[in-house]
Amino acid sequence: MVKHIRWHLKDQHQGRKLVKFHYTFFVEKWGEKMNVSDQEVARWQSNGSPSNIFNYIQNQRKTRILCHQEEIDLEMIVKKIKKEKTETGLRQNIWLIQKYNGSTSPDMIQAYVAMLEKLEGLETSCQDMTLESYCSQMIESQIEYRSDTMDFFIADLLKELWKTEIFNISSFYFHFSSTIRTLFERDSRALNLHLRQIFVMMNDELDGTEEPERVSWVKENLAKKERED
C-alpha cells in the first residue's frame, strides 16, 4: 500500500514516479484506470502525505462529467423520486443518486430537492431516512470533491433549496450554516457574490417574526459584499 511508502529518495521526481507506479498498479488491479499526474502527487506530499493517497487524489480531482446516458439515467431517477410513495423506494433512489456523487449536473440538484421534499413528510423510525440526516449526507458526499465548480454547485443547490417550502430561516441555518461558512472561507469573491444571492432572497422574506439571532445572521452575510466594496 502507498501509505507504507517512505520518501527516502532524494530525487523528488523519482519519488513521484514511485507513487504513480504503485497508484496505477492498485487502480488497475481493481479494473479502473486513473492516470495520476506529477502535480497531484506533489500536492499530496505538500499536504502532509495523508495515509490514503487514493482517496486523497480522488477527492481533490475536478468534478465528474456525466456521459449522455448517465444524464438520461439521472433524469429518470428524478422522475422516479417525484412519483415514489414508499420508504423502501426512496431508500433505493438514495442509493441510485450516490452513484453520481461528484457530478455537478443540474439534475443532481433536482434529485436532491425532490428527495428532500419527499423526506420532509416521511414518517420513519430509521435515522438515516430523516430530513436532517439526508441534508448532512448530500452535502458531505459532494463537498469532498473539492473544486471551484463543486463550490458553485453547492451554492446553487442551497439557493434552490431555499426556494422550496421545506425550510424557514431557522431550519435553513440549522442544516446549512456550517456549509455556508465553509464556502465563504474559500475567500473567492465570485463565490461570495453567488452565496449572497441566497441572503438577498432571505432578506426579502423577513417579516418580523424571526429570531433575532437568525435575522442577524442574514444581515451579516448580506453585508459581506458591502465590506468588500
Automatic annotation (TrEMBL):
This is Uncharacterized protein. It comes from Caenorhabditis brenneri.
